[in-house]
Amino acid sequence: MTAQLGLGTYRCLDVAEAALMAASRGADWVDTAPNYAGGQAETSLAPVLAAHRDLRVSTKVGFIPAGAGHIGVRAGALIAADAERGYCLAPNYIAWQLARSRRMLGRVPDLVFVHNPEHGCPDGEITGRLYKAFLTLEEACGQQVISAYGVATWRGFSSRLFDVPALIELAAKAGGPNHHLRAIQLPVSLVHLAPVAQALGGHGPLADALNAGLEVFASAPLHGGEIPDLVTPELSELITPGKTPAETALAVVASAPGVKRVLLSTGNAEHWGQAAGAVGRPSLSPDVLRRVVDVLGT
Fold first, then answer.
1. pLDDT tens column, 17-52
2. How far apart are CA 235 and CA 46, in angstroms?
3. Crossing angle of the two packed helices 245-255 and 286-296, in degrees rounded to 10
4. Tens digit of pLDDT for each residue in 46-103?
5. Which domains does the chain have, with CATH numbers?
6. DSSP string for 229-275
7. Are 8 and 267 in contact (CB under 8 A)?
8. Helix, strand, coil in percent for the chain, rounding step 5
9. Would you tell me how many other CB atoms lie within 10 Å of the CB of residue 168?
10. Please, are residues 7 and 29 in contact by the beta-carbon 8 Å criterion?
11. Contact assessment for residue 35 and residue 64, using Cβ atoms and an 8 Å cutoff
12. What is the C-alpha separation between 199 and 253, in angstroms, rounded?
């Protein structure tokens, strides 16, 4: 498969331990956010990143880490209302959080995602919110505070609040033809099959990202650990004969057109090994993926 397995730290109980495990088994990417692990995820990753210089890292802006709201207010980066709300994409806050993430991680992040820009966004304001965020992120790229940016969303694409062409248009408006928008992140799984079905038809976020040269990070591939319990033996045999339900589910995600990285949250070495094996096998054919969509729907 063309996809690679990366560590997603959203559900990791011990972020440092999970990152060490993944890095020792060949992982090349770890995805995190300032608000993960009770606000300690970035700090926990710093020694792992220092010890594994080839391990690349992405973090996010948007959600305010636990305990950081009052610090941001004192620093003039946040207003009290946003601190109370727990979410902010104002330019001052983004710039402050980027500098904070760089200190916490101990290095320049390879990628910074705008985290769920749809969160609490009033109707009709998503375009303006994204454009202002992109302007700040382009400035940060120019100052080498970060290397590149993207958009990580749970329902932005599925709710049609924005699409990849719209994101590229906003990035070009903010940064010109050499803008630094490089990736999208969205849920892709046997529960969230719509992006796969759309890609098989040559449209939707996965196909649009592939055509635009953006990397696709597939989040929640096991839907918080629920999917293995939903995969029947008959479905598993249809997709990947002889494999476990989790391996079957991951094979579908990794085979989806355009998916570059599959983000798995686990600190279990055995689970990681099985997942790496599933992602590393040859891709499922489009015909098999179509049968999956036909059986499960979108």
1. 999 999 999 999 999 999 999 999 999 999 999 999
2. 41
3. 120
4. 999 999 999 999 999 999 998 899 999 999 999 999 999 999 999 999 999 999 999 9
5. 4-296 (3.20.20.100)
6. HH--HHHHHHHSTT--HHHHHHHHHHHSTTEEEEEE----HHHHHHH
7. no
8. 50, 15, 40
9. 17
10. yes
11. yes
12. 12
Cα 63 off chain centre by: 14
The C-alpha atoms of residue 138 and residue 145 are separated, in whole angstroms, by: 10
Quote the tokens at residue 117. Answer: 């820009």
- Residue 189 near residue 153 (C-beta atoms within 8 A): no
Tokens representing residue 177 in the block: 């033809």
Two tokens at 52? 């594994």
Per-residue tokens: 269 = 């070495």
Rg (Cα) of the chain, in Å, rounded? 19
Give the whole-angstrom CA distance, residue 229 versus residue 191. 12
Sign of the C-alpha dihedral computed for residues 22, 56, 256 and 137 taken in this order: positive
Q: At 149, is the secondary structure helix, strand, or coil? A: strand
* Residues 94 and 133 sit within 8 Å (Cβ to Cβ): yes
Separation in Å, CA 256 to CA 96, 241, 281:
36, 18, 13
Nearby residues of 63 by Cβ (< 8 Å), 6 or more positions away = 33, 34, 35, 86, 87, 115, 116, 119
Token pair 């880490």 is found at 65
Task: Give the amino acid at 105.
Answer: L
Q: What 8-state DSSP symbol labels residue 87? A: B
Give the integer Cα–Cα distance in Å for 147 and 141: 6
Q: Which two tokens stand for residue 13?
A: 């109980």
Judge whether 251 and 284 are in contact, CB under 8 Å. yes
Instruction: Answer yes or no: are the C-beta atoms of 244 and 286 closer than 8 Å.
Output: no
DSSP state of 57: E
